[in-house]
Amino acid sequence: MYGFRALRASASPHLPTLIGASAVLLWSPTLGMLRTISEIFGATGGAALIFTAAAFFSALMLGMPRPSKLPRRYLLLGGALFIGTEASLSLSIGLAHHRGQALELVMINYLWPCLTVLLTVLTRLQRGNWLLLPATVLCLLGVVMVVTGEGAWSPAVLWANLRSNPLAYALALGAACMWATYSLVTKRIGGTRNAVPLFMAATAVVLWLKYLLGDAPPLHLHWGGLAQVAVFGLLTATAYGCWNHGLQHGNVTSMAIFSYFAPVLSVLWSSLWLSLQPGMGFVRGVACVTAGSLLCWWATRPPRALPPPAPPATHTA
Fold it and tell me: Is the pTM of this model over 0.70?
C-alpha cells in the first residue's frame, strides 16, 4: 500500500491506470490453474484454499484495512459484489463437466469488460458514441472465436451444454455482471483505501462455510496442488491489489478496454496449461479482439479540444 502511495505521489497521472491494467497480465494464467486445483481438491475445497492463500498474500503486501476506515456503503455493497463474483466464478469453473466446458465458462465470464464500459457510459462516468455498439459486438465475436477454436462450438452445442449444466453457466454469467458492477461501485464510492485483503478474507470465510456445511469430499494432502494454490494466491492477490488501485486512482474505461485482451491471454495460458491446442480460430479471435478494443477506445475517447481563439488585431492610429 505504501508503495502505491509513493508511486501516486511522484509519478505521472497515467501510472495508476497502467498499474490497474497490469492486473490483466497477472490474471491470465489463473483460470487454467483454477480448473486443475478444482480437479485435485474439488470445486468448493479448491476455491476455499486459493482464496485463503490470496487473502494471506494480499494482507502481507497491502496490510489488512480496518473496516471502520472504509466507507460503510462500499464495505457492504462492494464487499457483497466482490464475494459474489469470486465465489461464483471459482465454483462455476470447478463445476464444469470437462476442460472444454471450462473454456466456455471463461468465455461467458469475459463478458465483464464490455459490460464495464457500457455501465460507465450509461451512468455518464464516461462519454461514448454510436461506435461503442459495433466495437462491443466485435469484441464479443473475438471472444467467441478465441474460445471455440476450429469449429468445435456452435449455438446448438452451447445450448445443449447450458441445459446439461445450468448452474455453472448461471454462475459464470452472474460473475461477469457482478464484477462489472463492482468496478463501477469501487470507482464511485470506494474511497482511497484498498479493501482487497478484507474482501479476500471474507470470500475465503464464505467458501469455507460452504465447504463445511455442504457434502464436499474431504481434502487430502497433495504437494503439487498446494504449490498451485500458493502460486495462484500470489498472482491473484497482486492482480486484485493492482486492479483496485487503478479503479480508485486511474481511468476505469481505459482499464476496461485494455481488459478486452484478457480472454486472449487467458485462453492461451489455459490452453497450454490444460493441454488444449487452439487453431486458426484463435488467431482470428485475436484480430477481432484487437480491432474491437481499438474501436472501443476510439468510441470513448474525449473530444479534441479546440484551439483558443486568436486575440483581436490591434489598430494604431
Answer: yes
Can you tell me the distance from the alpha carbon of 276 to that of 64, in angstroms, rounded to the nearest whole number?
39
Q: What is the pLDDT of residues 105-114, one digit of tens each?
A: 877 787 787 7
User: Which grid cell is 146?
Assistant: 478465441
Q: What is the rounded CA–CA span in Å between residue 232 and residue 34?
A: 8
Query: Could you give the CA distance from residue 250 to residue 20 in angstroms, rounded to a whole number?
Result: 7
SS3 159: helix
Which residue reads 462491443 in cell numbers?
Answer: 136
Tracing cell 476450429 back to the chain, one arrives at: 150
Distance (Å) of CA 89 to CA 121, 151, 199, 282: 25, 26, 15, 23
C-alpha cell at 222: 497433495
Residue 51 cell numbers, joined: 482464496
User: Which CA distances in Å does 61 have to 67, 141, 238, 255?
Assistant: 18, 38, 8, 22
Q: Is 240 left (phi over 0), alpha (psi -120 to 50) or beta?
A: alpha
Taking alpha carbons only, the member of 25, 17, 16, 74 closest to residue 198 is: 74
User: What end-to-end distance do the CA atoms of the chain give, in Å?
Assistant: 66
pLDDT in tens, 195-211: 889 999 999 999 999 99
